[in-house]
């Protein structure tokens, strides 16, 4: 009979393989979620984007030589700049045929999720809002990006894919 120590070692080895296998499968879907809503507090439109942190780090150029380490004490000093530039280049809005300027507010990192906050102002409620969203398509062709637009007490949900990157809402 095997000794107690060898059985424990064998069980540990099997458990380690099982956990690493699960970890490799844990993130096989590629998804982001954006919410756009009027903020009574600021008098501006708030844009909240929920990313998987590892996808965001990869998209903004994290590498072994230049790790981002989002949310850690060793976070790359360029992280906020790189995140805002990435979003500015991959999501844009046109309200009533006028381009909208996003302002970066900040981010929060919780475990494997990064919440990014932006805002924009409009002189009047728009009659139409065109949204373009191309987050992570350069990395993951099956990426899906959901956008919820909350206006006047209702929510309109849009789904963007690699072959469907722009949508116009008539409000």
Task: Give the tags.
171 residues; alpha+beta; 3 helices
Percentage beta strand: 35-45%
Number of helices: 3
Residue-averaged pLDDT: 88
Total number of strands: 10
Overall geometric form: elongated
Please give the alpha-carbon distance between the first and last residues. 74 Å
What can you see in these coordinates?
By secondary structure, this protein is an alpha+beta fold. The protein has helices spanning 4-25, 53-59, 79-90, and strands at 31-39, 44-52, 91-95, 98-99, 103-110, 113-120, 128-133, 144-151, 154-160, 166-170. The chain has a six-stranded mixed sheet. A hairpin with a 4-residue loop joins strand 1 and strand 2 (44-52). The longest helix has 22 residues, at 4-25. The protein is elongated and about 70 Å long. The chain starts with a helix and ends with a strand. The mean pLDDT is 88.
List the helices and strands and how they pair.
Elements: H1 4-25, E1 31-39, E2 44-52, H2 53-59, H3 79-90, E3 91-95, E4 98-99, E5 103-110, E6 113-120, E7 128-133, E8 144-151, E9 154-160, E10 166-170
Parallel strand pairs: 1-8
Antiparallel strand pairs: 1-2, 2-6, 3-4, 3-7, 5-6, 7-10, 8-9
Would you summarize the structure shown here?
It contains 3 helices and 10 strands. The protein is of the alpha+beta class and 171 residues long. The chain has a 6-stranded mixed sheet. Strands 4-3-7-10 form a 4-stranded antiparallel sheet.
């Amino acid at each position: 009979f095997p000794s107690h120590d060898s059985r424990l070692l064998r069980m540990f080895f099997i458990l380690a393989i099982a956990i690493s296998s699960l970890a490799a499968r844990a993130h096989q879907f590629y998804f982001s979620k954006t919410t756009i809503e009027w903020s009574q507090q600021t008098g501006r439109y708030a844009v909240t984007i929920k990313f998987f942190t590892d996808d965001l780090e990869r998209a903004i150029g994290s590498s072994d030589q230049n790790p981002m380490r989002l949310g850690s004490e060793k976070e790359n000093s360029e992280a906020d700049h790189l995140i805002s530039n990435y979003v500015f280049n991959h999501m844009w809005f046109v309200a009533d045929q006028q381009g909208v300027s996003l302002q970066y507010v900040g981010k929060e990192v919780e475990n494997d999720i990064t919440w990014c906050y932006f805002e924009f102002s409009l002189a009047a409620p728009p009659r139409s809002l065109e949204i373009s969203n191309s987050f992570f398509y350069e990395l993951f062709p099956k990426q899906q990006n959901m956008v919820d637009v909350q206006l006047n007490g209702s929510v309109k949900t849009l789904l963007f894919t690699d072959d469907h990157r722009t949508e116009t809402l008539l409000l």
